[in-house]
Write a structure and sequence with these properties.
- This protein has 138 residues and is mostly helical.
- Helix content is 76%, strand content 0%.
- It is built from three helices and no strands.
- Helix 1 packs across helix 3 and helix 2 runs antiparallel to helix 3.
Length: 138
Amino acid sequence: MPKDKIQEGQPLTDDELFYYHWGQDTKRESINNCNDFLKQVISISSAMLALGLFFGDNIQDRIFKIIVAVLLLTSLLVAFIGIIPTKVELHLNIPNQIKQAKDIILKKKIRSLKISGGLLISAFTIMIIFLIYSELSK
């Protein structure tokens, strides 16, 4: 006979149960949230790219315009790539395979979000630096 004592469980408290369900909902919605953020990056990058092309005549420095346009266009492309559905082969009766597929998709979307967001922030930073430089050199 084993001498180990059998552990007895206790029901979860209301707080523990709330946070358990909240964690499950958060995990379930993570891919949708990444898609929403990528859509916002696409909107912002597109708008900024269009504004740059529309009002680009006001900016005299061609190098500045080219760098910002390349950053915004690359941000836009990376965000589009992140939104494209990822093909993953899985069997719905194998939970571990479903979890691995979800993890692969989420990693791809987070990577796209970080890259496209970083490029967008870089474009804004360069624009602000150029505007400050233009004002100071007058």
